[in-house]
Backbone:
């Protein structure tokens, strides 16, 4: 994996998001540490654009953030009457029709959906605070490597809102309904130790080892043949929705495809 400081020439660099590509590895970096990488609709559009600009050669996407915090969540400017320049304020959105509000939230969610595409493995490198939208962005990835100072929190419910940036499905899948409910409604911090113990994080390391650990993980993913990784990811992602018998059938079908491919035999 390329060093985060290596000058690869960004494919995208706008609105607090930078995308660089080094052959099979892409790195998406949140680049507004002065505001603890607080999020806005402009940042979400940039994240969506980053996903669309990934070259076909990319197999691993690393999500990281500059500064001491991964992301402090939604920029509080969103809650002011003025909102963000050139954007409808939350008050304006609330006055719109149900269809308009649904379409706007769906557009915001696009920044969080592409990380689980079948053709890539996404890894979030998370340090410091990952709150609200920041927590949900980390949850959008397939894997999470965290620094030992990480503090996850889902604060939306405490603000009278709900988590709506695709984080509820992976959270329940990782920690179960009861713990997910408790984390969301209390808004409490989840530390690195609990994150690893409950499956929220794959591993926790000292902050100065975060980049090296993610680099090693990316290299391990790349060591396996791409098609086998894609098939395995699809099998595992669909397992929760399939019955045991259906999952057995899916395994057989996937393995048949792999064997034919390895043998050079067409379907």
Residues:
């Amino acid at each position: 994996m390329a060093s985060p400081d290596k000058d690869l020439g960004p494919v995208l660099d706008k609105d607090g998001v930078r995308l660089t590509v080094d052959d099979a590895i892409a790195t998406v970096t949140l680049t507004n540490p002065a505001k603890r990488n607080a999020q806005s609709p402009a940042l979400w559009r940039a994240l969506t654009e980053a996903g669309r600009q990934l070259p076909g050669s990319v197999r691993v996407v690393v999500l990281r953030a500059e500064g001491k915090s991964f992301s402090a969540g939604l920029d509080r400017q969103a809650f002011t009457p003025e909102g963000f320049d050139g954007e409808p304020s939350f008050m304006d959105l609330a006055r719109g029709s149900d269809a308009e509000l649904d379409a706007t939230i769906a557009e915001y969610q696009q920044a969080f959906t592409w990380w689980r595409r079948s053709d890539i493995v996404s890894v979030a490198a998370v340090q410091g605070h990952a709150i609200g939208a920041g927590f949900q962005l980390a949850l959008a990835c397939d894997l999470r490597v965290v620094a030992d100072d990480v503090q996850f929190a889902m604060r939306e419910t405490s603000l009278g809102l709900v988590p709506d940036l695709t984080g509820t499905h992976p959270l329940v899948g990782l920690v179960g309904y009861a713990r997910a409910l408790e984390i969301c409604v209390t808004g409490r911090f989840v530390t690195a130790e609990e994150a690893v113990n409950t499956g929220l994080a794959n591993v926790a390391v000292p902050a100065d080892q975060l980049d090296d650990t993610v680099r090693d993980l990316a290299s391990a993913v790349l060591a396996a043949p791409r098609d086998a990784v894609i098939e395995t990811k699809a099998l595992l992602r669909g397992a929760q929705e399939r019955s045991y018998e259906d999952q057995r059938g899916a395994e057989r079908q996937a393995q048949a495809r792999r064997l034919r491919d390895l043998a050079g035999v067409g379907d």
